[in-house]
Design brief:
It is built from no helices and eleven strands. It has 122 residues and is mostly beta strands. The model has no long low-confidence stretch (mean pLDDT 95).
């Protein structure tokens, strides 16, 4: 069983910054890739940024140059630093983790956080 706990969402003015955090806890062997997704009402969930266990990153075009994803492997935590926020960044943001359950397993499982609301408004 794996739990992802998110924090850091809230209300911010355009041009402001927020940092989201997500920590994995529970019983597992390793956390592999981690990612942030976002979803607005009536919209499909979209990938914002991802990071591998080795630190390779990928970003959606809409956030390149403004958002930075990072991780602390020792703490099983992923961060999303969001700068120069725009109203169109208003979404529920979800943490995702790819997890290997034990050392014998080659299987991987996806887990999701509960979501944290980010609202950008003046």
């Amino acid at each position: 069983q794996v739990q992802l706990v998110e924090s850091g969402g809230g209300l911010v003015q355009p041009g402001g910054s927020l940092r989201l955090s997500c920590t994995a806890s529970g019983s597992f062997f390793s956390v592999n890739a981690m990612a942030w997704y976002r979803q607005a009402p009536g919209k499909q969930r979209e990938l914002v940024a991802s990071i591998t266990s080795g630190g390779s990153t990928r970003y959606a075009d809409s956030v390149k140059g403004r958002f930075t994803i990072s991780r602390d492997n020792a703490r099983n935590t992923v961060y999303l630093q969001m700068n120069s926020l725009k109203p169109e960044d208003t979404h529920v943001y979800y943490c995702n983790a790819d997890v290997t359950p034990d050392y014998r397993s080659t299987r991987r499982y996806n887990y999701w956080g509960q979501g944290t609301q980010v609202t950008v408004s003046s």
